[in-house]
Amino acid sequence: MIRICLLLLSCLHAFPASGDDERPRAQVAQGVLAGEARDGVRRFLGIPYAAPPTGARRWRAPEPARAWDGERVATAAGAACPQTSRPAVGIAPDAQDEDCLFLNVWAPADAEALPVMVWIHGGAHRFGAGSLPYYDGASLARRGVVVVTLNYRLGYLGYFSHAALAGEGGGGNFGFMDQLAALRWVRDNITAFGGDPARVTVFGESAGGVAVLMLMASPEAEGLFAGAIVQSGGGWARLPGMQAMRQRVQAGLDTIDVPADADASTLRALPAQALVQAAAVDRSLGFGPFMDNVSMTRQPVDAFHTGRQAAVPLLIGTNTWEGSLMQALDVGEQGRQVADGTLARELYRHETSDDALRRQLVFGDFAFVAPARWIAASQSRRASAWLYRFGYVRSARRGEVPGVAHGSEIPYVFDVLGRSGGGAPLAEMSEADLAMSAEVADCWVAFATLGRPDCAFAPWDAYSRRRDNTMDITDDGARQVQRLRARILDAYDRFFAPNASR
Questions:
Q1: d(CA 220, CA 452)
Q2: ∠ CA 68-70-72, rounded to 5°
Q3: pLDDT, tens digit, for every residue of 374-410?
Q4: Residue among 128, 133, 122, 47 nearest 82 (CA)
């Protein structure tokens, strides 16, 4: 009996448990990762791409991730970067920690040298995480790409300027530096998941779209990606200078009783949540990256104006109700006065007579729609660009909202509509809703695969300033339209574009 027991024990040691044995594995620079496979997709979640930005590393450029011994189980997303909740912007992740520089990878089971799509989430540079449910990359991966989502430092932990740190020479756009570090990690490690580092497309929405434009303007990002997608990312806003950012930060620090003469050690000893609280008082538009003369040495808008941006294919567009963002941000009294002025009333007389909706249209056109068209025209002089307007409202919501709200295209892009946090339950989605979701995802994947959006939205020609062509995605389908709302957008060009003759 004893010999039989010993034999059984030896067998148990010789054959690992079936769950562990079936886990997909990937060898990266830091060690071996053990993920999970489901429905034809391998998932590797919570991968550290940089060292924890904590303690003495707070407000420093990201350092390489540490190596680990043995296998690291990669089946759960890492903590999100510290943030507060803002329902109008998006849900706040439950698990938060200053040790938050993680990324997630989805890849087909048989992936080999596939295109890679790297998602940079939005959230006004203060909210969000790459692990939020509506960024689930499985559906895109099943179309034949490797998908990466990532966290980056947010709020005052990510974008910070203070006299006490001036002598360190580290700049202040730490969230942007994190994005660069993640792209370098992808370049060095994505082959382990079946991705091709020479075929990386960066895509992002809102603040993530701003980040993509910054990457296109940054010499530091040269060679890290071969294509770009900007969803509602603006394009005209000029980044504030270091002194303006310093004043903005101190205004927040004043609310938590941190004096202007605090030294670096005092600042680094502050609890992360205290800094989150300080940043939360700033509800104005435009918080985030600034000209720190280290990570950002040129204004992105100037790079596009002078043709110094990356010469890569670009897909760019906006939604029909970008003004919904006014619910979450303070656009200021001056903005409201402009929207209520005689010129605005005349300009929008054919679109609405409702004062509130006109204000939202003015905000959306100025901050997103007109800049996107200008960026497409600027990029078309360097490489091919494609312009879209997303106006498909799901069937059950038609008549209830004036259009597609800021960020509401995301469940369609990831093809998670009705599941994985993609809006309302699946039972509330019509066949047409689900078909549109599949078609949008197909177009984005086609762009990442071919460098052009060859998909169901055909024909979709590269943008030409002469033709001023836009792919207009509506409740009735998608069609290419010339000079879409041109009378209004031309007016914004005349007054606000970098080449305006004001």
A1: 25
A2: 65
A3: 999 999 999 999 999 999 999 999 999 999 999 999 9
A4: 128
Report field, pTM of the whole predicted structure over 0.90: yes
CA distance linking residue 276 with residue 86, whole number of Å: 12
Q: Catalytic: which of 131, 139, 161, 206?
A: 206
Look up residue 442 and give its amino acid.
D
Q: Annotated catalytic residue: which of 121, 139, 205, 322?
A: 322
Between helices 174-189 and 207-217, what is the axis angle to 10°?
A: 70
Annotated catalytic residue within 406, 408, 437, 439: 406
CA 479 distance to own-chain centroid: 26
Q: Dig out the tokens for 329 from the structure.
A: 């941000």
CA distance 51 to 70: 18
**Residue 121 a catalytic site member:** no
Residue 50's alpha-carbon distances to 33, 201, 204, 352, in angstroms, are 15, 21, 21, 49
- CATH for 35-496 is 3.40.50.1820
- Annotated active-site residue 428? The verdict is no
18 three-class SS = helix
Q: How far apart are CA 365 and CA 361, in angstroms?
A: 6
Q: Angle at Cα 290 formed by Cα 298 and Cα 280, nearest 5°? A: 165
Q: For residue 252, give both structure tokens.
A: 């927040």
Task: Please indicate whether residue 206 is annotated as part of the active site.
Answer: yes
Interatomic CA distance for residues 496 and 237, integer angstroms: 10
* Tokens standing for residue 177: 């530096």
